[in-house]
Amino acid sequence: MRPDLPHTLGALRQSGYSEAKLGRRTVKDELRANLMAKLRAGGELFPGIVGYEDSVVPQIVNAVLSRHNFILLGLRGQAKTKLIRMLTTLLDEAVPYVAGTETRDNPYHPLSRQAKLAIAEMGDDTPIDWLTREQRYVEKLATPDVTIADMIGDIDPIKAARQGHNISDELTMHYGLLPRANRGIFAINELPDLAGKIQVGLFNIMQEGDVQIKGYPVRLALDVLLVFTANPEDYTARGKIITPLKDRIGSEIRTHYPASLEQGMAITQQEAWTKREKTVEVTVPKFVREVVESIAFLAREDKKIDKRSGVSQRLPISVLENAVSNAERRALRAGEKETAARVVDVFAAMPSMTGKIELEYEGELKGGESVARELIRGAVGRVFTQYYDGVDFKHVVQWFDLGGSLQLDEAAPAKAMIKELASIQGLMEKTGAVGIGPGASSAERAAAAEFILEGLYAHRRISRSEDRVFAADMKRREQSAGREPGEDPRRRAAKRDYQ
Predict the structure, then answer these.
(1) Are residues 289 and 158 located together in one domain of the fold?
(2) Mean per-residue pLDDT over the chain, rounded
């Protein structure tokens, strides 16, 4: 209990928390008033929420200003839970309640019989406690086994026996989560998973603003904002939101994935754990971050991946973390104090991808790992084009066409790798296009040169085997020579003579 705040009803009445101020002001009124003050002051309403400034956030603002209960509809990994948890920033810093009451009763308008009896007996000496913003947020993950007693409440015979009350006495009620969220925000995640008969139990609180606990002729006029989240594709897969409940929800707000690569990268950089203890300094070049984010964007477009399930923003976050860990592991084994993430580290992060994509039939035939490899290769090709569109790599490709080959050991130290890569004519001088100049560290230069080779492989200018041996692309050479891939040159000559 904060010592600077009144802790009896009498002291509360003499303080600034008068009945006129606290009175009948509801949670929705409180949220509306504080939101209006924030809008006038300017600034960011939901810090850390990226990409929703002109779409989702204005709709949430309208819902709060309208005093609506609302639902966020969106695929997985679209920050729905994070958003509703941030609604607590719109609540007052602290509000008083009758100490010891399970329903956190307003001292001036007590709700439960327990609070009414306490005030009647003690008057101005009734103890008052204070609710912080965090204490005024109650969240429930909907599951099929949730009961009406969990949500609303039930008779508690054990409580009646211990306290010597008649079982019909209101004091023997066991309150569920919703009454315990009184004077706060009550959030239900994955609403379609809630059984239909439990959804029916929310009708009264949504429309009339009260609930009735089984067996008692008492209606509790709760003061609560109800917010929900749901995946629109789960309506038929696992359950549905029943129509009368949907009708009672004031606003339905659609969330979405990042609209641009830059927004996605900002979210991933904000959420991914890449700043670690300084045993090894791991640098993540911009082009590697772009490759990681492009994987998610390509996956959302890929026909082999189920679009109804979505590709969570958690995918690039996990991939980036795993790629950094692989770079860290390499540096520790090589005895290096600093390193840079490479494309090979992104390939090593495939275990953090395969569990996050739901495959269509065609994808199932190929297998999760094959689809993941294709996505990484496609992402490398897309980012490579952004940096090197129209750039002449004739000398690099020619080096391989003349019989050159190079095996890049994943565990090789950066300096040893640079020595091998420098043997390829015209390769190292091209790293400047990705912002890695001659003055950069060996680890960054090695990462940039490897990215170029992977980009040429993605565009089928050179080939690469599974054990990372880069060589000439024989199919491309044969096609450019005017013969079918794999065709014997002598057969081609014989066909020409015959014609």
Answers:
(1) no
(2) 87
